[in-house]
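Chapter summary example.
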Amino acid sequence: MTRLLTFLIAVFAANAAHSTEARWLLQTSVFTTHHNPKPEHNNDQKLVAVEYTREDDWLVGGASFLNSFSQRSSYVFTGRYFDFGPGPVFAKVTGGLMHGYRGEYRDKIPLNQLGIAPAIIPAVGIRGQYLSSELSVLGAAAVMITAGLKF
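The structure predicted for these 151 residues follows.
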């Protein structure tokens, strides 16, 4: 999984070498809530995510987090930003592979028979020159708010 993430970041970084608009984003989770909370649900994901966005708003990244059942999990992804005009509001959609739902929680995400499942995560957010925040929809299970630093 780490090799795949390294490869994807290298490809996007090489393609953006000619760009002055490319950017990196380091994010963490600040709030999570489940739609149908259960006692075993974890709302403190301890998310650490890094993404690289090219000048054309295509992105690649990876995240490490505690899933809803406190299992260390990862998500490698690619996606795209969509701006709503000249303002700071945007939408983002990422798609990739998620790993980490194991044991009795293996079937809590669809298509996880091999321990790796496809995932699509839509988000809306707001960004300034150096800071960014997003509201991500985590399937039918939860929503999460993140805060990030752009560099």
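To summarize the output: The CA atoms of residues 97 and 118 lie 5 Å apart.
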